[in-house]
Amino acid sequence: MRLPIGVRPARPKEYLFVKMPNSIQRMTRQRRILLDVLDRKNWHPTAEEVYHIVRKQAPRISLGTVYRNLDILSRQGTITKIEEAGTQRRYDGNPTPHYHLKCLDCGEVWDVPDEAVTWQRPLDVAIPGFTITGHRLLFEGYCARCMEERQ
Ligand SMILES: [Zn+2]
Ligand SMILES: [Zn+2]
Question: Distance, CA 44 to ligand 2 centroid (Å)?
């Protein structure tokens, strides 16, 4: 029997009740917890800091799993990864492009406030044979607390 145009057949019941494998359910749940932990403004924790908080909600989670899932989320563009040679990677729940400040003494990382950015496109470059999709900028210096301690 042909259905009139625009009318779609109802899906068979068993299709609606297909269960996701347990491993995928667990992964989804873990990533949701990670995103909840990262959902704070101006906060850039290391994977270890995230791990210590996540463990309270998911006691059996391993540090390796936290690392793996944070990397997957940053590759998807759901979160931002702040990478720097020689230091621990930090993560940021804010996926929109923004700049960072880093204190060379305490290692803390902050967002550059929007009002501090006075230029429009600081890196308006075209490189032949390379497609630019973005850029990262990290300002280095000393935070007020560390400056005070130095005096
Ligand atoms: Zn500092
Ligand atoms: Zn940030």
Answer: 6
